[in-house]
Design brief:
By secondary structure, the chain is mostly beta strands. The protein has strands at 34-39, 49-51, 54-58, 63-68, 73-79, 86-87, 89-91, 94-98, 103-108, 114-119, 124-131, 134-139, 143-148, 154-159, 174-176, 179-183, 188-193, 199-204, 219-220, 224-227, 234-238, 244-248, 257-258, 262-266, 271-276, 282-287, 298-299, 304-307, 312-316, 322-327, 337-339, 342-346, 351-356. Helix content is 0%, strand content 45%. The strands form eight sheets. A five-stranded mixed β-sheet has the order 6-11-12-13-14, with no helix packed on it. A hairpin with a 4-residue loop joins strand 4 and strand 5.
Length: 357
């Protein structure tokens, strides 16, 4: 089996509240020490926003929580209008989250008081993002909105036709200089100019038929965008002109992660597939589940962390060998959050776990 050497380079801007579509240049203990922090009731496909000793997350009952994960207790909780299908983001003294009624909330982190809210026409889904002091959010109708963090003023919207027959999920934007890259349930990946909100290019990565949603975040190298979709292809696309460099018939409900040399894909058939970054050639593949891998995969210096729907966290080494496995209580369809070399995960029934030293 071909040995993989991870290059110690941080490819993506990494923040303590980030989701799991990242590669970092340090290692997290593969012993998978795990603690159950607290239970909050059933959740959608969300993961906690971690900010120091605290995490923020909402559930399907519309309750939004601030939790001290070290003390394992609730600091405050508030009731929003409807079920919460978005992962929150923290910025300065506030935390932002959206619900299924289409309301974006700005909440004071210390007090839990709602400072302002903004109504949209469709449910807010996926991971909210902060980039250059602006909030970016996705709504279910194939729209990305850029909103000011101060008062919720809409600065621009990037919108595409809505596919009525699709999986319920969204691909959150990934940013690079003056551009963002985002996929929709129409099977396309788009490059968008952040100064105008205009489209630079769009590439279809589906295979026709139905359910070709791009629901996992893209990953970037210096000149290439890597993307996959639920029914179609895993594709390498040139950033500047949008030309297809290579594509392989590998589908995924989750994200891709690019290191400086390799691409990691948690596939729909339950395998982790490792491809050569330049050619798309499959280096190795490892079957870890009989179900599609829906959770986002996290890649560190020398260990890949995958989470299956059945609740198995699997630490995989650079040669495709399983280093350790830990069974969590429950089923899982969302990814990890990370803070201070610890991973955080939440089950569909709202059991929150911390994994690490």
């Amino acid at each position: 089996m071909k040995k993989i050497f991870f290059v110690l380079v941080l490819l993506l801007v990494f923040t303590t509240e980030a989701g799991a579509s990242y590669y970092v240049d340090y290692r997290i203990t593969p012993t998978l020490n795990t603690i159950h922090i607290i239970s909050i009731g059933k959740v959608d496909k969300v993961f906690p926003a971690v900010d120091g000793d605290f995490l923020y997350i909402g559930n399907k009952d519309g309750r939004f929580y601030k939790i001290n994960w070290r003390k394992r207790d609730v600091v405050w909780k508030i009731k929003l209008k409807t079920s919460i299908g978005s992962s929150a983001v923290c910025f300065n003294d506030d935390v932002f989250v959206g619900d299924d009624s289409g309301v974006l909330y700005c909440i004071h982190k210390s007090s839990g008081k709602i400072k302002w809210k903004k109504q949209f026409d469709f449910p807010i889904l996926g991971k909210l993002s902060i980039y250059k002091n602006k909030i970016f959010l996705c709504t279910e109708d194939n729209s990305v909105w850029c909103v000011s963090a101060n008062l919720g003023e809409i600065l621009f919207a990037f919108r595409k036709p809505y596919e009525m027959v699709s999986l319920r999920g969204v691909c959150s934007p990934v940013f690079d200089g003056d551009f963002m890259y985002v996929g929709f349930n129409d099977g396309y990946i788009y490059k968008v100019d952040l100064s105008t909100g205009g489209e630079k290019w769009g590439i279809f990565v589906g295979r026709g038929g139905k359910f070709f949603d791009v629901d996992g975040d893209v990953s970037l190298s210096e000149n290439i965008v890597f993307v996959t979709c639920c029914n179609g292809w895993t594709v390498a696309i040139g950033k500047k002109e949008g030309q297809v460099i290579w594509k392989r018939q590998i589908s995924s409900y989750s994200n891709v992660v690019a290191t400086p040399v390799f691409l990691f894909v948690p596939a729909k058939d339950g395998r982790i597939i490792i491809q050569d970054l330049d050619s798309g050639e499959v280096i190795w593949k490892l079957k870890i589940s009989h179900k599609p891998i829906c959770a986002f995969t996290f890649v560190t210096r020398d260990i890949v962390y995958a989470l299956t729907q059945e609740g198995n966290i699997i630490a995989i080494d650079e040669e495709g060998g399983i280093v350790n496995t830990k069974k969590l209580d429950g089923s899982f369809n969302s990814g990890f959050s990370i803070f201070n070399k610890r991973l955080f995960a939440v089950s569909e029934k709202g059991k929150i776990f911390v994994i690490g030293e």
